[in-house]
Amino acid sequence: MDLLILLCSLLISYLIFKIWKFIDSKRDQECYILDYECYKPSDDLMVSTHLSGEIIRRNKNLGLNEFKFLLKAIVSSGIGEQTYAPRLVLQGREENPTVRDGIEEMEEFYTDSVGKLLRRNGVSPREVDVLVVNVSMLASVPSLSSRIINHYKMREDVKVFNLTGMGCSASLISIEIVKNIFKSYMNMTALVVTSECLSPNWYSGNNRSMILANCLFRLGGCAILLTNNRSLSTRAMFRLKCMVRTHHGSRDDSYNCCVQREDEHGRVGIHLDKSLPKVATRAFVENLRVITPKILPVTELLKFMLRLMAKRISRNPRKGSSATNLAPKIGIDYKRGIDHFCIHTGGKAVIDGIGYSLDLSEYDLKPARMTLHRFGNTSASSLWYVLAYMEAKKRLKRGERVFMISFGAGFKCNSCVWEIVRDLGLDDDGDGNVWKHCIDDYPPKSISNPFLEKYGWIQNEDDPETFKFPDDQPHD
Fold it and tell me: Which of 149, 260, 350, 409 could make an S-S bridge to 154, C-beta 3.0–4.6 Å?
């Protein structure tokens, strides 16, 4: 009898041990953000209104109609006059970029942001177990990831991933790579480095489908420190709840809507096709269909199902709205499962369209609008500038959820949800948030449009030979 009791006790102990090990292993599959650092370029790279017009003016391939098109695009872009451009553009060398220009642009970014991030968190570069780098439009030899490893003297066995050509949604792809690695290894520290290289990709031709990118894209980048070490969970800022990636690359119109190519004169640029809004809408709706059941309560899911059934009967979006819509209104309340919305700053129309589709308030859209105004479209890193704005405004409270959504060439729509682990706000040491130097000025009582004030007159010009600026003052 005693032997039977002993055997039962051992069996129960074994089962408890196995259950504990199973739970313990699952806990180590969590993905936490310990900290992140957005890049603030030096003030000498800031683009003023006068400089914007001057950059357009010195492109000798543009006619009057192209001048008007670009100036109109700038005026309506939602971008302010404190964004940053590559050094070679400010120096007037954009038509003759070199490989070194692109590498130096990236070096300025990662030596600043990665260095600050590691120092602030007391993490040695040799403690980094995983490095994921995504920069879409620069493929150097050695790779950018190798350059970062060499600069910071990381370990020989660091797991390295170098992503190119992934577009504006690449940072979430990088996060998913880290998340999948965390499923197989315990107590890991990962570093994600996300940016875009503009220096070798400035378009100097006159193809309208390719010159628009020059108006929106600006310098930026972000370094993100992640871990699955549960002993560090109390230090973490965010915990990943779920992620959904939608890729429509098998569809020809989706594949061809955003392509790097040469124009008829051999000048390289990014072609944005007229089908882009339709393609983005399709990817956006498909992504929402998958992630919505993961983030909303049952009552809202029922409304979602009814909405889908109604859409099958009538596929036309609701008429009568003056908004530029990315997609028709979904018709459910996403605020029942989400507290904050982190929207890719692809442009004013993108922000307006997502706001309309998800029925968001101006309060919800303000972080994206202010990020577009202050920093422009910084490609894959733009989501993190929006998140930093929310943090600087002390919006982010423990237990709340942040919904990130971004778009990219391919065509892709990626989204994820983060749970806030602790109350977040500006730190006291003057470091750590890219908005700290100017957050008190945002949002301004009214956003003036310096581009309209300075260049609105071009609409009355008839002769490209008489194109002049309102003053002869050189830019700062």
Answer: 149
Active site residue 373: yes
- Concerning whether 344 is annotated as a catalytic residue, the answer is yes
Establish whether 168 is a catalytic residue. Answer: yes
Active site residue 271: no
Tell me, letter by letter, the H, E, C secondary structure of the chain.
CHHHHHHHHHHHHHHHHHHHHHHHHHHCCCCEEEEEEECCCCHHHECCHHHHHHHHHCCCCCCHHHHHHHHHHHHCCCCCCCCECCHHHHCCCCCCCCHHHHHHHHHHHHHHHHHHHHHHCCCCHHHCCEEEEEECCCCCCCCHHHHHHHHHCCCCCCEEEEECCCHHHHHHHHHHHHHHHHCCCCCCEEEEEEECCCHHHCCCCCCHHHHHHHHHECCCEEEEEEECCHHHHHHCCEEEEEEEEEECCCCHHHHHCEEEEECCCCCEEEEECCCHHHHHHHHHHHHHHHHHHHHCCHHHHHHHHHHHHHHHHCCCCCCCCCCCCCCCCCCCCHHHCCCEEEECCCCHHHHHHHHHHCCCCHHHHHHHHHHHHHHCECHHHHHHHHHHHHHHCCCCCCCCEEEEEEEECCCEEEEEEEEECCCCCCCCCCCCCCCCCCHHHCCCCCCCCHHHHHHHHHHHCCCHHHCCCCCCCCCC
Superfamily of the domain at 241-424:
Thiolase/Chalcone synthase (3.40.47.10)
Would you call 247 a catalytic residue per the annotation?
A: yes
The residue with greater pLDDT, 110 or 309, is 110
Each residue of 47-77: pLDDT tens digit? Answer: 887 787 778 778 778 777 777 777 777 777 7
Split at pLDDT 50, 70, 90, the class of 78 is confident
pTM of the model: 0.86
Instruction: Kindly name the residue from 134, 325, 377, 414 that is annotated as catalytic.
Output: 377
User: Where does CATH 3.40.47.10 sit in the chain?
Assistant: 32-237+451-466, 241-424
The single residue of 168, 215, 222, 413 carrying the catalytic annotation is 168
